[in-house]
Design a protein that fits this description.
By secondary structure, this protein is mostly helical. The chain has one domain: Amino acid/polyamine transporter I (Up-down Bundle), CATH 1.20.1740.10. It is built from 18 helices and no strands. Helix 1 crosses helix 12, helix 3 packs across helix 18 and helix 5 crosses helix 16. It comes from Vibrio marisflavi CECT 7928.
Length: 445
């Protein structure tokens, strides 16, 4: 069933860094810390870690297994495990491809702002105030140009292929991400107010416990691992058969969760440093006031108040954000590109060119109708479509795909799996528990 001409990850470490890079995005570095700050800090962290284990990890194994079995794009991979339901498999695969492309269309706009903030922080050091104002101000031309710049960066990586593009750049960018995190955290911890944020993040207050916090943590765990948009299925299709899928999925989940945890170590103390410097962060009732503007207004204002060293820290901070955005965007673009290469028999370069161009056009339409479309596209894709597709993939893996075929696929990289605890729990768990949790995410988030 394997297609010999397809690219493959050259090493397990390369795959782990690429898959973790796909998962590590703005949801980890922006979304998770602000969710934690809004939902009790350490309490949210504990529940989130539980939900990664209880919901995200079992579903990640399912997506990777379907992808590696099919050794193809999501449409063909789903058809291979559901041969009697080709129309349904095609519908789920196409839906995943369309939704991930729409997610990339608004993600590229936000990532473009990061490009502007990164460049602006650098120019601030040399006093180019007019250029900084344009790069960091909100305007249609600026939003459009920076979105195109970010999309061209993404297209450059993806058109180089699996090994020379995705794996190569993920293997470079992810270690840089960790190094920059360490530098930033080391500095922020020396600032007044940081320990107050660290205490909120690491010392649980169970008075904040509620069903809403549990569902928020569940949704964050699901979205954090890029589930429900077929990105992990595509990456799984580039995995060698010798890979131990449960172990590899656990390593990806651990790296992704580790980045989210480290991001919390940076962002929450930084918020309290900003508060110490006079920036209003929480309302009188304790609610986070600035989750939407935290990255682009609150933290830059704090960096600016620190003088030259603060501007340097700002450059490092936006480098972290930009790397996280890029490692996610390349996995999003790879989904429709993989479909075009294999279903339309196109070259990778051609597929990347026209698909990237279409996504830029959609992004441009959103930019020109920002007030009406930006929030709407986010809501339709991430609140509605992504959980529904994730649910269908789970149902296909758990109920449609024959259990003996699943076992045979998993045994290729883990021959003794049948005797282990994982196989005694996972098949039933992914059939029954994961769909129930996904329905909760959809209806209550």
């Amino acid at each position: 069933m394997a297609v010999s001409s397809r690219g493959h990850f050259s090493s397990r470490l390369g795959f782990i860094l690429a898959a973790a890079g796909s998962a590590v995005g703005l949801g980890n570095i922006w979304g998770f810390p602000t969710q934690a700050a809004s939902n009790g800090g350490a309490l949210f962290l504990i529940i989130y870690l539980l939900m990664v284990f209880l919901l995200a990890y079992p579903m990640l194994v399912a997506e990777l297994t379907v992808g590696r079995y099919g050794q193809s794009n999501p449409i063909r991979s789903l058809k291979s495990v559901w041969p009697n339901g080709k129309a349904g498999a095609i519908a789920v695969g196409v839906a995943g491809m369309v939704v991930v492309s729409l997610i990339l269309s608004f993600y590229a706009i936000v990532a473009g702002w990061l490009v502007g903030s990164f460049a602006g922080s650098g120019l601030e050091l040399v006093g180019a105030s007019d250029a900084v104002s344009w790069l960091t101000g909100f305007s249609t031309p600026r939003n459009l140009i920076l979105m195109v710049v970010f999309m061209l960066m993404t297209m450059y990586v993806v058109q180089s292929g699996v090994t020379d593009g995705i794996e190569k750049w993920s293997s470079r960018l992810m270690p840089i991400l960790f190094v920059l995190f360490v530098l930033l955290i080391g500095y922020i911890f020396t600032q007044p107010g940081a320990m107050e944020g660290l205490k909120m993040y690491l010392v649980p207050d169970f008075d904040h416990f509620s069903a809403e916090v549990v569902v928020s943590a569940m949704g964050q765990a699901f979205f954090s691992l890029s589930l429900g948009v077929c990105a992990m299925m595509v990456y799984g299709s580039y995995l060698n058969k010798e890979a131990n899928l449960p172990k590899t999925a656990a390593q990806v989940a651990c790296v992704d969760t580790g980045v989210a945890f480290i991001a919390g170590l940076l962002i929450l103390p930084a918020m309290f440093v900003a508060k110490h410097n006079g920036v209003e962060i929480f309302s009188d009732s304790g609610e986070l006031l600035s989750s939407d503007t935290l990255v682009f207004q609150v933290l830059p204002a704090m960096f600016h108040s620190m003088g030259t060293i603060g501007e340097l820290i700002s450059v490092l901070f936006f480098a972290v954000m930009l790397i996280a955005a890029l490692t996610s965007s390349i996995s999003m673009l790879e989904v429709p590109v993989a479909v075009a290469i294999e279903e339309l028999n196109q070259s990778r370069k051609l597929a990347v060119s026209w698909i990237g161009a279409i996504i830029m056009v959609i992004s441009g339409i959103i930019v020109f109708n920002f007030g009406d479309l930006f929030g709407l596209v986010i809501k339709l894709t991430t609140v509605y479509a992504q959980p529904i597709i994730g649910l269908f993939i789970t149902l296909i893996a758990g109920w449609v795909w024959h259990r003996n075929q699943v076992l045979k696929e998993l045994k290729q990289g883990y021959p003794e799996i049948e005797q282990g605890l994982f196989w005694k729990i996972w098949p039933t768990y992914v059939r029954v528990v994961c769909p129930i949790l996904m329905v909760m995410v959809f209806f209550f988030s």
